[in-house]
Specification:
The chain is mainly alpha-helical and 101 residues long. Helix content is 76%, strand content 0%. The protein has six helices and no strands. The longest helix is centred in the first third of the chain and has 21 residues.
């Protein structure tokens, strides 16, 4: 059974690499910035939470060109969904928690 999972993991990795190759420079930069902001939210310094969440909020709002399409930042954040749920549970400040929601 262990051998069955390896080819699937390799396949998923190749698909992810192909997706990254298809992205424009602007998309790669946006994804890198979002990843950096998510990393900040995982740090112990809670003072970084609010500015990081505000930056994520701004990225999402500024990239929305049409109400019918999903903003790219949200697509890039999909792999971080569980991380964001964990971060939300850790936040104690009600205003920051609301911003995270």
């Amino acid at each position: 059974m262990g051998e069955d999972t390896k080819p699937k993991e390799v396949k998923e990795k190749k698909v992810e690499e192909k997706k990254q190759d298809d992205m424009s420079e602007e998309d790669k930069q946006m994804q890198g910035e979002l990843n950096m902001l998510i990393e900040r939210l995982q740090e112990a310094d809670t003072a970084l939470y609010k500015p990081s969440l505000e930056s994520i909020n701004t990225l999402i709002r500024s990239s929305t060109t049409s109400m019918t399409s999903v903003p790219k930042p949200l697509k890039f954040m999909k792999p971080h969904y569980q991380t964001m749920k964990t971060i939300y549970d850790k936040i104690r400040d009600p205003m920051t928690k609301k911003l995270c929601a």
